Amino acid sequence: MSSEPQVPRLVAVTRPLDRIPDIIALADPENPLVWTRGDRGCVCIGETLRLTFTGPDRYAEAAAEWRRIAELTTIDDPVRLPGTGLVALGTFAFAAESGTTSVLVVPRTLIARHRGSAWITEIRVTDADGAESSIEQLAGAMPQLPEATPLRPWTGTALGTRAAEGAPGVAAYLDGVDRAGALIAEGALEKVVLARQVAGTIEGDADLRTPITRLAVSYTDCWTFAVDGLIGASPETLVRSTDGAVSARVLAGTRRRHRDDEPADLRARNELLTSPKEQHEHAFAVQSVVTALAPHVRSLQTSEEPFPLRLPNVWHLATDLGATLSENSSALEIVGALHPTAAVAGTPTAAAIAAIAELEPFDRGRYAGAVGWIDAAGDGEWVIALRCAQVDPPSSGERTVTASAGGGIVDGSNPEHELAETVSKFRPVTDAFA
């Protein structure tokens, strides 16, 4: 009988900083690890531990493994704010059958800010006998805030000029929407989210802080992230858990913005608010989240009506949810219960997943999965990986960038309109890598 793998023992020391850092400027230019929005966020430098997961139980296995690690970690944290002490950043594949690995990364150094406060955390592997001395050693040798390096020149990319390898082109996508509409008309399902992929290349040593900065500056209502090569800015909060309080934001229903034509822009917003098709799609998405959250929370509340969320590229229908977390549930367990939502899969879920596998002849990878962070208490923030691209490791002096975007297909969906919606949703990434 094989014994269970030994759980690594970690030590984490957090200390306050006397100045507010520029989070993105401190990131590794070629392998950034960043989570930021406005005056909150963190940058991670180096790796102390990397946990990998695959298959249908990847979220449950990650939650269980993280709980075991957190229980054995020695933490020295006088700051005690969200994101202090032991923290891991993670990104998870959309599909159980995906060839892409899901990961949790524990950094060696984490530098973070929360409004007017800032701190630095060092995390190392230790052993049970040396825990106390390691705390003392680590606390006595806390590094100073590193100096940011200037951004290197950015030469751009051809992102969006070709379909990603194995992904269908425009004609195939339009055909897929037609086929999805036929399945819906037959009663096989009510909604399915179909995506397409585009790709391009950048130089192998390109400074990835440039697209991250562009996303953070342009999409201030989104979480901008860079985790294990996945870079994006997501408007959809899957779950935020802090001291027992849980919140989420559901987005479903989209209209393209007309930023240079205010009357047309207002018409697009009003069409979104009054469209039976969009309201129907949104109701699917909200109900799927409410149903999934119910076993894990108490006193669940939602905003009375969907509201229009204005982003630089699109209008979205949005609903905010709030609840109190039940005991013994972590943010990762809630993420596992919620994924996949109707907003990125469809309704009923099993039928929608089967339709996606049939109609999308490519692996979504981490697109529409979850990306975020978790701490020792099980609190954290996780968003759906949207408006994002996966940047592959360098090969022959180049890096491939693969972006994904999709939309919800329901009864009455028009293929050309759905294609135009994906073009609008690609815009944050294509602009960021331009």
TrEMBL record:
KW Isomerase (keyword) present: yes
Region Disordered, annotated ranges: 395-415
Presence of the UniProt keyword Isomerase in the record: yes
SUPFAM superfamilies hit by this protein: ADC synthase
Keywords: Isomerase
Lineage of source species: Bacteria, Bacillati, Actinomycetota, Actinomycetes, Micrococcales
Domain Chorismate-utilising enzyme C-terminal: 172-425
Family of the protein in this entry: Belongs to the isochorismate synthase family.
EC identifiers of the protein: 5.4.4.2
UniProt GO MF annotations: isochorismate synthase activity
Reaction(s) the record says it catalyses: chorismate = isochorismate
Name of the protein this chain belongs to: isochorismate synthase
InterPro entries (alphabetical): ADC_synthase, Anth_synth_I-like, Chorismate_C, IsoChor_synthase
Principal EC category: isomerase
Species in which this protein is naturally found: Leucobacter tardus
